[in-house]
Design goal:
Elements (H helix, E strand, L loop, with lengths): L16 E3 L32 E4 L2 E3 L7 E2 L1 E5 L2 E6 L1 H4 L8 E4 L4 E4 L1 E6 L1 H5 L5 E2 L6 H14 L6 E4 L3 H5 L5 H8 L5 E4 L5 E4 L1 H6 L12 E5 L5 E7 H12 L4 H19 L2 E9 L5 H10 L6 E7 L6 H11 L8 E9 L33 H11 L5 E6 L2 H14 L7 E4 L10 H5 L2 E4 L15 H8 L6 H6 L4 E3 L10 H8 L9 H8 L1 H6 L17 E4 L8 H5 L3 E6 L2 E5 L1
């Protein structure tokens, strides 16, 4: 079993009343103690007897045909009734686990279709540096980390903001060389779109002033053309690959982070399904997920998005990706998505834009950002991988990157894919109706504070005031009938879906309704994972992926929504979290 049932008759879960057999002749504010002896209760037939019965709830189903209910009945792992308290009585036997929700709200389990669970919770990262600090403070922090890991071949860190390094008078390269001159150091910037390295790391990667920029990446340089220790986008990714491959226990660290922290915390937040949006199969990420599945330890439904390496030979990569495809609806683990980057990000001027940036930090040709994958190359991958069954999860932040991704799908898709473009920070108004027209899912993240309208002016120095308006335009996309999903991009933003819901309904002028936001986190995201016939709403015949929370979201303010606590989470009819 994936998770042992963790409750028994007469045990209370955060105020929910449970009993083995219960006549249910009480109001929602009373306990669920039986009022009639079990022997005198008319027992249902074996075929009708339920495993679990939930009554007296505010059950929001995300089913347009029946939006609300009082009771849900589960037999084994399937929902067999969604209806009234009275109807549910017919399914209660001596062996039924009856839970009186006492007016609490029940929803379908939440989905997060864009996160980085192995990267975010891996114990492979050895140290963290502050987002901002002085040169001396950084040197001290890194030197101390080196002293704490005297046998590490590579020192791997995380935490700074790119603007901190760019605004310093000191050379980023010289800072790390002073801190650790004898071993390679690599520190991931908070967005993961740049790496800070020392001279030893550059040497091991074979990089020098004479090196050319790799596909989808930029080698940071000083005014004299020498490398400055900052590697942007795919240039940094390639060096991080070297660092990770040097760790003898990286796979074990990833595994422990997943089972000891990530999955329990996701279940605690009411999340029952996720997409790993960057499964580095060359680092063994697929093997780690497969190990967890084989050991029957998954407490989530998982779709893996295999990373498409920009610098890899296309024929070799396409053959490998096809060989890794796995899709069996009855299994919790699916390998049925591929993750592509069209571009980088705004804050380091690598997001692909139609018009040039107002500042020219990286001296890219045309100063309009970069492409990891060009439109033509994405079309090639669509034609090759769609027949296998893969759906594409495409990173697109700049208006040009998003436009080119839509073009590729329009030109090359066979119409069977459920492709999505994620992030969607700067969307050309021309492209808004194309999402619905082409059947492309619009995946957005609004849980991070940096996505709030109050932060939009921060991009004005880079892209001007007109383009800095309406970033991540979820309302405009919804108004244009796009299928909208909301996700976290954890650990860039918190994975707590209630923070995302709160921000989604309050980010004027790009706010959406609560019903739209819940649908984006449940049924629409289930559609993106090709499991909307099995989960994503509370309907008869669907699997019992359910979450109980401590308040009615429709009666709560935006601030109250973000403070919601989960009381109970079920996956496949089994309790995987209880408060």
């Amino acid at each position: 079993m994936r998770a042992t049932k963790m409750i028994t008759s007469s045990f209370l879960i955060a105020g929910l009343a449970l009993s083995g057999c219960n006549s249910d002749n009480q109001t929602s504010s009373q306990s669920a103690t039986p009022t009639t002896p079990a022997s005198s209760v008319q027992q249902p037939s074996a075929a009708q007897s339920a495993t679990m019965v939930f009554t007296h709830g505010r059950i929001y189903t995300v089913n347009a045909e029946q939006p609300w209910a009082q009771a849900v009945v589960v037999k084994d792992n399937k929902i067999i009734l969604v209806g009234s308290n009275e109807e549910a009585q017919d399914y209660i036997s001596e062996t039924t686990q009856h839970i009186n929700l006492q007016g609490k709200m029940m929803l379908p389990g939440f989905h997060d279709v864009h996160m980085h669970p192995l990267e975010s919770a891996s114990e492979a990262t050895q140290f963290t540096v502050p987002a901002t600090a002085t040169a001396g403070e950084y040197i001290d922090e890194v030197a101390y980390a080196a002293s704490q890991h005297p046998t590490a071949t590579w020192l791997i860190g995380y935490g700074h903001e790119i603007s901190t390094l760019l605004e310093m008078a000191d050379s980023p390269l010289a800072m790390l060389d002073e801190a650790v001159p004898d071993r390679p150091v690599i520190i991931m910037e908070q967005t993961s779109h740049s790496m800070w390295v020392n001279s030893k790391a550059l040497a091991l990667a074979g990089l020098s002033a004479n090196s050319i920029d790799p596909i989808g990446g930029v080698l940071g340089r000083d005014e004299q053309g020498k490398l400055n220790g900052i590697l942007y986008d795919n240039a940094g990714n390639q060096v991080m690959e070297l660092a990770m491959q040097s760790l003898p226990d990286a796979a074990q660290s990833d595994y422990l982070g997943l089972i000891e922290y990530t999955m329990p915390e996701l279940n605690k937040a009411g999340i029952t399904s996720i997409s790993d949006a960057r499964t580095y199969w060359q680092r063994g990420h697929l093997d780690t997920w497969q190990r967890v599945a084989n050991e029957d330890k998954l407490t989530l439904r998982v779709s893996l998005g295999l990373w498409a390496y920009p610098h890899m030979n296309d024929n070799t990569q396409l053959a490998k990706l096809k060989s890794l495809y796995q899709s069996n609806p009855v299994e919790l683990l699916q390998v049925n998505q591929v993750k592509f980057y069209m571009d980088g990000i705004l804050v380091n001027t690598t997001a692909a834009m139609h018009e040039p940036y107002l500042e020219n930090w990286l001296e890219l040709d045309g100063n309009r950002g970069l492409n990891y994958f060009t439109q033509a190359r994405l079309e090639k991958y669509l034609k090759a991988l769609e027949p296998t069954g893969f759906d594409f999860n495409i990173h697109g932040i700049g208006d040009r990157g998003i436009h080119e991704a839509l073009n590729a799908i329009e030109n090359a898709s066979n119409g069977q894919g459920r492709h999505r473009i994620t992030h969607l920070e700067v969307v050309d108004p021309f492209d808004l109706p194309r999402f619905a027209k082409l059947g492309v899912i619009a995946d957005a993240q609004v849980a991070g504070d940096f996505t709030k309208p109050s932060h939009w002016p921060e991009t004005i120095p880079l892209i001007g005031s007109e383009r800095a308006q309406d970033l991540v335009p979820i309302r405009s996309l919804s108004d244009n009938n796009a299928t909208l999903t909301l996700s976290s991009d954890w650990n860039v933003s918190p994975f707590n879906p209630f923070i995302g819901l709160s921000n989604a309904v309050s980010r004027q002028p790009q706010a959406i309704t609560l019903a739209q936001a819940i649908e984006a986190y449940t049924l629409n995201s289930a559609y993106a994972m090709r499991q909307e016939q099995r989960v994503g709403s509370i309907e008869v015949g669907k699997l019992a992926d359910l979450v109980v929370i401590d308040r009615d979201l429709f009666e709560a303010s935006a601030n109250e929504i973000r403070n919601t606590q989960v009381v109970l989470t079920l996956l496949d009819g089994e309790i995987v979290y209880q408060r």
